[in-house]
């Protein structure tokens, strides 16, 4: 029987990674303290380091700044999509007007 996959909140991941980055824990000590696997903790620490360095992650961001960047990028993508639809609709209307 498969074990159910545990999901952790972004806040939990942030706090766990901070044990390594700000509190001086080793990755293994942090794993033991919060009860997660080494691989997961390593990913979280790496992601948080990158976010502090200004790199926007592809997964859910841990820092408020990167969360805001992800929100703004999503809005830009939505606006660009809507803009493309309007351009196509406008082109169709122009074609109809020319034919008449």
UniProtKB/TrEMBL annotation:
SUPFAM superfamilies hit by this protein: Homeodomain-like
Entry's family note: Belongs to the transposase 8 family.
Protein's recorded name: Transposase
Protein's organism: Photobacterium piscicola
Lineage: Bacteria, Pseudomonadati, Pseudomonadota, Gammaproteobacteria, Vibrionales
